[in-house]
Design goal:
Helix content: 25-40%
Number of strands: 14
CATH superfamily of the largest domain: Enolase-like C-terminal domain
Order of helices and strands: EEEHHHEHEHEHEHEHEHHEHEEHEE
CATH architecture of the largest domain: Alpha-Beta Barrel
Number of domains: 2
Bound molecules: magnesium ion
Structural class: alpha/beta
Strand content: 15-25%
């Protein structure tokens, strides 16, 4: 059996699906992410395909090594997501060929379900409470919100207090049984981040995510020293080597690898590394259905995953799947799809028809003085 073809499809709202086909007609699907880099990612998929065409799709580790190392340019998020999508597709193909869900190749299930948390939005407390309460009514026990505005290197109390009062109001409305995570999204610089983290301690957050940008996360142990709050990071880190220092230097309490950047089996390996440091894993997944399906296969075999990000409820993905019900939450829980491969069936005709439709782009932010602001 040999790999015959690798194709990529950019589909609304903002997803990149990859299809791998073998010479004897086995097919697998995976998903890349494309934030403002769609052409670079699809180009990388085409380049990496040249490393594996004509080779045995069963030899996934060998193919990953050839994609990761077979070229002078290596690692980096564009190549990583391209490789991750192809790798997911290879697992999906293998699962279909042998008639087994991917988790059966990874040691088998250790759990019955994984708890999901959902993102909430809005710029004001009323909207945030309304969104959070509707998630709670759906059965979710955890919500996550971002910092709704940009913060400059230093800020006056009026601006930081507004955000702190937002979190205080949300905690008061939801009570102590609902987990609240806050995503700084790398938008906050160290002085303001430290001030916010300190002020947010009384609201007992599940975690602060990307409290500093990943390129600054080496500062976290000193910046947040003595502040009793959980820190999480990892959605932009590409592989074990990127997580190595995060774990060794105790920079966070939670790691958040994304299966569409690390790949499916690499996520499992990162989680095993985290296990050795008593660090929990909350896989990042604001992505599309294939990434979620790939992540759930890995969640199934890991005891240290306690929360799974779930945002598919916000975006309609059903048109791309023959069995969308496999990825719906049940009282805030996600059950592992048990069909072959990733456990979902792509509606290929719908994907081909939607390809090259309009894509949602990440916004551009700037500070009041006109300088660039992290989004
Ligand atoms: Mg995040």
């Amino acid at each position: 059996m040999k790999i015959a073809r690798v194709e990529s499809f950019l589909v609304p709202p903002r997803w990149c699906f990859v299809r791998v086909e073998s010479q004897d007609d086995w097919v697998g699907w995976g998903e890349a992410i494309i934030p403002k880099r769609a052409r670079a990612v699809t180009g990388a998929i085409a380049d990496l395909a040249e490393n594996i065409l004509g080779r045995d799709p069963d030899r996934i580790e060998d193919l990953v090594l050839r994609m990761r190392a077979g070229g002078f340019f290596r690692r980096g998020p564009v190549l990583a997501t391209a490789m991750a999508a192809i790798e997911q597709a290879l697992w999906d193909l293998k699962g279909h060929r042998y008639g087994l869900p991917v988790f059966q190749f990874l040691g088998g299930r250790v759990r019955d379900h994984v708890n999901a948390y959902s993102g909430i939005g809005g710029d004001d407390l009323k909207t945030m409470i309304a969104q959070a309460e509707s998630r709670v009514q759906q059965g979710f026990c955890g919500v996550k919100l971002g910092v709704p505005e940009s913060f400059h290197y230093l800020e006056v109390p009026e601006r930081t207090d507004r955000f702190i009062q937002l979190i205080a109001g949300l905690r008061q409305a939801l009570g102590p049984t609902i987990a609240i995570a806050v995503d700084f999204h790398g938008r906050v610089h160290r002085a303001v981040a430290r001030k916010l983290a300190h002020a947010l301690v009384p609201y007992d957050l599940l975690w602060i995510e990307e409290a500093l940008l990943p390129e600054h996360d080496d500062l976290q142990p000193s910046v947040f020293d003595g502040i009793p709050i959980n820190l999480a990071t990892g959605e932009r880190l590409v592989d074990r080597w990127a997580f190595k220092h995060v774990l060794e230097e105790r920079r966070v309490d939670i790691v958040q690898p994304d299966a569409s950047i690390t790949g499916l089996f690499e996520l499992e390996k990162i989680a095993r590394m985290a296990e050795a440091y008593d660090v929990t894993v909350a896989p990042h997944c604001p992505n599309g259905p294939l990434c979620l399906a790939a992540t759930l296969q890995v969640d199934a075999v890991l005891g240290n995953v306690v929360w799974q990000e779930y945002n598919l409820g916000i975006r309609d993905f059903s048109q791309y799947l023959e069995n969308p019900e496999a990825l719906l939450t049940d009282q805030g829980r996600l059950h592992t799809p048990t069909g072959p491969g990733l456990g979902i069936t792509i509606n290929e005709a719908a994907v081909r028809q939607a390809a090259n439709g309009p894509l949602v782009k990440d916004p551009d932010w700037q500070h009041g003085d006109g300088t660039y602001a992290e989004w």
